[in-house]
């Protein structure tokens, strides 16, 4: 997996608030489905989630960007790489959306589902 894909995924994780603020509606929907694959529930106790993406469950992910030595024998490493790759694709799509919006060729987001 290219290092750039990992770095992009880590960058999104490290500054998710800014990524969210700058994202289009379509990107926000993709990111929400990625982070909360079973959705967000609401009940008597308020809002909650059943499951979250593996990469946000792992506190060690943030330190990965500072550590060049990773135990690739750890089975969670492959799952982490897959999720970082998905985040990288979401970020790439967001950049493409932003480029289309700035050039005035963005498709209307209403009706997209």
Structural overview:
This protein is mainly α and 113 residues long. The protein has one domain. The protein is built from six helices and two strands, in the order αααββααα. A two-stranded antiparallel ribbon has the order 1-2. Helix 1 crosses helix 6 (76-102) and helix 3 runs antiparallel to helix 6 (76-102). It is flat and about 45 Å long. The model is unreliable at 106-113 (pLDDT under 50).
Layout of secondary structure:
Elements: H1 3-14, H2 16-22, H3 25-35, E1 40-43, E2 46-49, H4 54-57, H5 60-64, H6 76-102
Antiparallel strand pairs: 1-2
Helix pairs in contact: 1-6, 3-6
Offer a few descriptive terms:
113 residues; 6 helices; flat; two-stranded antiparallel ribbon; mainly alpha; 58% helix; disordered C terminus
Describe, in short, the structure shown.
58% of the residues lie in helices and 7% in strands.
Structural class: mainly alpha
Global mean pLDDT: 76
H/E order of the elements? HHHEEHHH
User: Ranges with pLDDT <50 over ≥5 residues?
Assistant: 106-113
